[in-house]
Records
---
Amino acid sequence: MRDVAASAASTGPRVLPRNDPRQYDDLAGEWWRPDGAFAMLHWLAEARAALVPPATRPGALLVDLGCGAGLLAPHLAGKGYRHVGVDLTRSALVQAAEHGVRVVQGDVTAVPLPSGCADVVSAGELLEHVPAWPRAVAEACRLLRPGGLLVLDTLNDTALARLVAVRIAERLPTVPRGIHDPRLFVDARALVAECARHGVDLRLRGIRPQVGGMLAWLLRRARATRTSGATSTGRAPRIVSTRSTAVLYQGRGVRKG
Ligand SMILES: C[S@@+](CC[C@H](N)C(=O)[O-])C[C@H]1O[C@@H](n2cnc3c(N)ncnc32)[C@H](O)[C@@H]1O
């Protein structure tokens, strides 16, 4: 497996190590393009938000760890949360703020927020980017109030995940090369055990984009690029449940009182 990769920069490609956070600066213009390099993050954000119930009290707080450009925000609209996002990448946080997220620049392994402040903590497509992911899990659980909800999705530490999410996905025109370092993928059992150590009983389910929708989307996108270079429109693929957690999986768990 190569450990360096070229990231597609708007100002010309530069070579960065896999999972180097500076890739998110190079790709800053992609976050909110529905058919851009981060398209799948939009689909996953919708699926993650579906795990979050409406707030049960005024002023309820949702802390979005590794919030990126705030793609979760539109899917939380009307649920009654104050949405606070924590991320390392300033160029992403600027965009998150433009979408109504209250942003905090910081590392998810040492979050500058008080213990028990959050009704919900979200960690979407984050843990597989954090070398010390158990530390990020400890922080997520620390932030939750008793009875608070943790929702997350990540990539499993399996040969199949490495094949699908790196070797195959990075050959598609829509997935940035080098965005993942497969050595950081998150073993599902270890994640459940780590959450349990911090008082959260995490339940997992495998997820994937719906195949027909994904193929139709790739076709539409290819046609749009060929004809005009324009962004295609049309329904985004849905994220559906799958029996296996071997590639991509969601987790949902409540912090004990
Ligand atoms: C794949 S993106 C996911 C963004 C967002 N959760 C979403 O689903 O749209 C990963 C994000 O995690 C952030 N990130 C990676 N490591 C981090 C760390 N140690 N602390 C804070 N943010 C981090 C990156 O800057 C990037 O915005």
---
Amino acid sequence: MTLHAPRFDVPFYQPAGDECALFEAAHINGLPLLLKGPTGCGKTRFVEHMAARIGRPLYTVACHDDLSASDLIGRYLLRGGQTEWADGPLTRAVREGAICYLDEVVEARRDVTVVLHPLTDDRRTLMLDRTGEEIKAPPGFMLIASYNPGYQNVLKRLKPSTRQRFLSISFDFPAPAVEITVVARESGLDAARVKPLVRLAGHIRALTGMDLEEGVSTRLLVYAATLIAGGMGVDRALQAAVIEPLTDEPDVQVALRDLITAVYG
Ligand SMILES: Nc1ncnc2c1ncn2[C@@H]1O[C@H](COP(=O)(O)OP(=O)(O)OP(=O)(O)O)[C@@H](O)[C@H]1O
Ligand SMILES: [Mg+2]
């Protein structure tokens, strides 16, 4: 019999569906994975949880509009009068058979796709054009990318040739019962007091598109619940953790306050 030590180091993640099985299938088969979904809905937590569960190191890169291929693969640096090659996070992840997570990948510069394409099809090869090295990714290596379709900018859409190299999972805010579990567990507030927060979130999310760019995230609900669990009054907590982060518009703030009154009375 094999005894497995309990793994206390795996970050808590409450699944919404079969995403954990899909991740494992992607990893076993060496397929890259694309996570789509709004801000604060659990994408990063899911990746951290799965990386710990399968026991692979995780390299996370927050992509931005200046991020170039060299930032990912590496560059020559001048050290003591000598030029020396320094691996970037993607190269390190490939060499170690680790997981590389490119957060908000659509933000990255175009030249990044040139690097990703041979790595995300059946070649699974990273080409270091500067050194001429070609690294075949070992079985443990996995590439994960995420983006928020809500902020899609026509100029920054992923090309079909890139999208069609990834398995994809759509994330959304969890169903109420799941979200109550998540918020209670993350904040320490008891489930009975989390329930109205999640009900409020449902009402606010119904406004999305009309007055709000994006609905209230699970992350903000965790913030609000954390303040309330620490003894802050519900009104003050919701002002700081929900109303102000969601909008600067006075009319929309009034509409949100009305929703709070409707839920809390
Ligand atoms: N299913 C879940 N299980 C556990 N915690 C969750 C879950 N969903 C959301 N959370 C909580 O919400 C917080 C925000 O989630 P996370 O950072 O994963 O969002 P994200 O989708 O990566 O957002 P962004 O696109 O802004 O990076 C987490 O720190 C965690 O407290
Ligand atoms: Mg994230």
